[in-house]
What does this fold into?
Amino acid sequence: MTLLQWILVFTLLGGVLSVLAAGLFLLLPEKTRSRLLPHAVSFAIGALLGAALLGLLPHALEGVQDGNYHGITATVLFGLFGFFVLEKLVLWRHCHHEDCEIHLPDLHDHDVHHAAAGTLILIGDGLHNFIDGILIGAAFLTDIHLGVVTALAVAAHEIPQEVGDFAILLHSGFSTSRAFLFNMLSSLTTIVGGVLAYYSLSTLQPLLPYVLAVAASSFIYVAVADLIPGLHKRAEFSATIKQMLLIGSGVGLIYLAHSTLH
It folds into this structure.
């Protein structure tokens, strides 16, 4: 195979394999899935924060070539603000040009906020997968064996995060088929990143840290602004302990994946 063919095959595997493995969650009976979903959301919070603060941001800071660390943190800040505005646009779109506070009952308003969270997580995940594709492409340009190992590592460390993404999409009102379809489409940006790396890695290199910072800001925003407030609706001590343990588990799995595979 040519080098480009190697990159195409393994970016496809690196992105799609993790989604297929995480998609096993969708095969559970609906009653079981509904019972597990609130716990999966807690896990997703930990996975998102872990991916952003232990994976994406450190890589972004390491990749800065001119020592402009303030530029990375400023990108995260503006990213958070940008996703706030984007969520507002999603909410306004659901209002159908009427006053939401008047015509939307509390339950509908709650569902619309969850729908916005699903939209934002797909955007952030698409950016993250795009970066993974660039990393795989760059590894293949260095050595074919390194490329294969990198693609397998990407698939392995993405699985816990993809489980969290499925939980968020289901929590946002997506059907199982739509959650799988959109997550699969998001994973295909891995191929785009790999192809771009093959043709223009030297041009893209200075921009990668800032793309990583934007992806990190989307994960932080969804976890903190959209998901954590929902946990406070169950204030009993036992529920809080479970939430803390599951968030810690999400962070821990991401930490282990990054520390052992990178």
Observations:
- Confidence is low (pLDDT under 50) at residues 101-110.
